[in-house]
What does this fold into?
Amino acid sequence: MEQIQEKHKLENDPKRYMESEKERLWQMFKTECKDRQLVVKVSTAISQELTRAIQIYLPEKYKLGVMEYLEHSSGKGFSSKMSLHAWMLVEMAEKGNFISFTKYLSDPIQCIKTFTSEQIKIICSKKNLKNGCSRLKEIYDHKVREIITGLKQAINRLRGSGSTITMKSWWPTFLKEIGNMFCVKADIRFFDEDRDLDFDELIRYLLAELKGIEDTVIKDYDQTIISKIVPFCCQFVTEDLLKCQKVCSFCKALCEHVGGDDHHRTECHRPQGVGGYSWIESKNLMTELCINSVKAKHRFRNQHTNNEWVNYRDYRNVNDYYASWIIEPLDGESEKYWKWFMATYNTKLAQYYKCEKADIPEGWNDISKEEAIQEMKKYYNI
Ligand SMILES: [Zn+2]
Ligand SMILES: [Zn+2]
It folds into this structure.
């Protein structure tokens, strides 16, 4: 009986039990640690690779983010070529500095580019009073979060594909899932010790790593990235928004086309005095629109006609550039803006073009700057 009791005691003694199972438990513990270590190693390696890829990919994302914002949300004129142009004219009128008008008249496209770059800087630097962040910082953070969310969604979509997984089989599936979101290596060094991993465990670690990446990349924000954004957006505006950069030979109005046609035209020709045309005898700046002159059978001469008289209606015979413009012979009115401009800057404009002041038609002097600006804003929806 005592022997039986002793045996029972021995069998139920935890210390003794542990002693006898020591080796087996130690092996189990070591395997567990090894597996855990491998998951940590794998998720760290993936995290490093994703961080590298995000840092390469992110500038493209935030540059496009700024461009999208400018086009759709800034509430200003980046939505089209003519609204951008009109916005610039409005700003120039508000500042009321004739020097900036002369810069515009001598090179409207360069003027639009300079204006564009100034406005991008202003819009990007504008602070949100609620959180104290600049618009650019908000766009940057938003893009980082968008990338991280995309990665989390890709990882979550792969859940349920099995309880264990090897990296050799998971990594290509993951790359397929994130598509061509950005460029990550097809092979990472942890493949050397590839084994079955607990999938849920790996996902848990990866999601935690992604949160860490998000925090780190957001913290890495540097406001000097504006210096990369401005040239990018300016190039975009020049190539994709401005397209045709030709101006009317008579009034210097910008062609409204954005491509797809060899001919140039605008709905809004201006008094020709804006482009420097004056009457030969009186030398007064002209207030007639080019469309009026083409209809009224006036004549003109300049260096392009070798100073020979040409009928306005035959303007297309002067050279290929004149021929490329469609100027309909119409009775038309100038926009209020240019009437106001000529009336306001008559003396300065005459000095600039070295001729006499225009005979300002009745009513032009009565147009206020506000009225001129208002009409332009309404017409171009800015
Ligand atoms: Zn014109
Ligand atoms: Zn054109």
